[in-house]
Amino acid sequence: MQVSRMQAFDKRVDYNLCKTYANQLEKGELYFLLNPVIAVTITDFKMFDELPEAINRFVFKEEKKNVAYLGENLKLIFVELPKFQKKLEDLQSLIDKWIFFLKETASLEIIPESLGEVPEIERALNIANRANYSREELEEFDRRAMMVQDERGKINYAKEEGKIEVIMLLINQRFGEVDRDITDRISNLKSENLENLVKALFDFNSLADLLSWLDNL
Fold this sequence. Notes:
The structure is a single chain. This protein is mainly alpha-helical. It has three domains: about 1-85, no CATH class; about 95-130, no CATH class; about 135-215, no CATH class. Helices cover about 50% and strands about 10% of the residues. Strands 1-3-2 form a three-stranded mixed sheet, with helices on one face. Helix 5 (about 135-175) runs parallel beside helix 7 (about 190-200). The longest helix has about 40 residues, at about 135-175.
């Protein structure tokens, strides 16, 4: 979102659009892997005085006959907040509600009922309100967030430990006690690989099959 006009702002928008499109590919990758890119620019000033609508969309077209360019891989969408004049009671579409929220965030302390139907808007208001917290309030907010993350981490760790314990029990039952090196390798597997190992385990006929599977990760 751009709050005020700046020199060469249009060129910055073009640059970011093209950079995002080009950065999808690594050196040597094929062009068909490219996905279309849409640049959404929200401004708190009017960019196109000749266009009365709050939302305007631009694509490549033939200059004289106005025929759209093949592919339509690049698109520019501009949302000019000063042009949006709808009141709260006039909002109908999801787009209306988001633009109203973006324009009126500074004056909203609570989410009006009609906007509260969109959970993402309520979360966005909480983030916006956080920007107005005092230093002490921010520290308390961060402290509570860290506590929640710590608890989640403990739960996830316990789950992973439980998976490893069950897998090692199955392996030891099938192939006998394995050495510490194999146990360590399995303990260091990512969650998705642990799940894949459980699926593959019953296809192994020997410890060599297990080692081969680990080596191919």
